[in-house]
Design goal:
The chain is built from ten helices and two strands. The protein is mainly alpha-helical. The termini are far apart.
C-alpha cells in the first residue's frame, strides 16, 4: 500500500496568455509585462508587445497630417512610383501584344467620349511606341513633381488630382478638336500638366515663388504648338483641371469639415468635366 503526496495543478506556475488562457506563453510584452502567445505577439523595436498594448498605442498616438489635411506621406512617394510602374508595364505590353491591340482598346478618341468614357483615364497610361522620349520625359517629370506634391497633398488627394487631371486632358482634347473624332490620343501629358497647375496653385497658396514654374509651363506648352504630334489641347485641359482640383484642396477651410469640403470640391470639378463632355457631344 503506497501513499502519494497530492501534487499542484500542472498549470499553476506556468504563465498563460490573458487572451487565450489555454495557451502557455513564456514570452512577455515589453510594455505591460503580461505573457503573450504567438497569435497575440506583435513585433516591436525591441522584443514583442501584446496586441492590447499595440491597439492602445494606436488609439493614443496622434495622427500627423499633411498641410492640406491628408495623412502625412512620409518616406518615398509611393503613389508616384506606382503610377510610373504602371505606365512602364503598359508600355512593355504595347510592344509584346501583337498588332496595335493595346492602343485600339485603351487609347482615347472623341468618338468614345460617351460609349467608352473610361478611355479618358486609360489613355494616360499609354505612350507612343515610335518616340521613346515620350514616356521617358513624362515619367521623369512625374517623378520630379510627384516627390514635391504627394507629401504636401497626401497620397489620396494627390492620386485624385492626377486622375482628374488625366480626365481633364481628354476632355480638353474633346472640346478643342471636335472635327477629329477618330484621332487617338495617348500619354500622361494631360495629367502631368495637371500637376503643373496643381503645383502653381499650391505654391501661390503657400506664398512661394512661381516664376520658374510659369516659365516651365510656357516652354512645355509652346512645344505642343510646334510639334504636330503633340496634343496641346490635352495639355491645356489638364493644366486647368489640375489647377481647379488643387484649389479645391488648398482653399478648403481648415477644421473638422475640411476633408468633406475638399471631397465636394473635387466632385464638383469632376462634375464640370462631365457636363462639358455631355454638352460637346450633344452639340454635335
Amino acid at each position: 500500500m503506497s501513499y502519494g503526496i497530492p501534487s499542484a495543478e500542472p498549470s499553476a506556475d506556468i504563465p498563460v496568455c490573458p487572451r487565450h488562457p489555454d495557451r502557455p506563453s513564456y514570452v512577455r510584452c515589453q510594455r505591460c509585462g503580461r505573457p503573450a502567445c504567438p497569435e497575440c505577439q506583435r513585433a516591436a523595436a525591441v522584443g514583442f508587445q501584446c496586441v492590447d498594448c499595440v491597439n492602445e498605442q494606436k488609439r493614443t498616438t496622434p495622427t500627423y497630417r499633411s498641410p492640406y489635411g491628408g495623412a502625412l506621406a512620409v518616406g518615398r512617394p509611393l503613389v508616384t512610383y506606382v503610377i510610373i510602374g504602371l505606365c512602364a508595364l503598359v508600355y512593355v505590353l504595347q510592344w509584346m501584344v501583337p498588332g496595335d491591340a493595346v492602343f485600339e482598346n485603351f487609347a482615347f478618341a472623341n468618338i468614345f467620349a460617351v460609349s467608352e468614357p473610361w478611355r479618358m483615364v486609360t489613355a494616360a497610361f499609354l505612350h507612343s511606341q515610335g518616340f521613346l522620349l515620350h514616356i521617358v520625359l513624362n515619367m521623369y517629370t512625374l517623378w520630379i513633381f510627384g516627390q514635391a506634391l504627394e507629401p504636401l497633398l497626401g497620397r489620396i488627394r494627390f492620386l485624385a488630382v492626377y486622375f482628374i487631371s488625366a480626365i481633364g486632358g481628354s476632355v480638353g482634347f474633346l472640346l478643342l478638336t471636335p472635327d477629329r473624332p477618330l484621332v487617338g490620343v495617348v500619354g500622361a501629358s494631360g495629367a502631368i500638366f495637371g500637376l503643373f497647375g496643381a503645383m502653381l496653385v499650391v505654391q501661390r497658396h503657400r506664398g512661394g515663388e512661381t516664376k520658374q514654374l510659369w516659365v516651365l509651363i510656357a516652354i512645355n506648352g509652346a512645344i505642343g504648338f510646334f510639334v504636330p504630334s503633340i496634343a496641346w489641347q490635352a495639355h491645356l485641359g489638364g493644366l486647368i483641371t489640375g489647377g481647379l482640383a488643387a484649389a479645391a484642396i488648398a482653399y478648403a477651410p481648415r477644421g473638422k469639415n475640411q476633408a468633406l469640403l475638399q471631397t465636394g470640391g473635387l466632385v464638383l470639378v469632376a462634375g464640370l468635366l462631365a457636363v462639358a463632355t455631355w454638352f460637346r457631344v450633344t452639340a454635335g
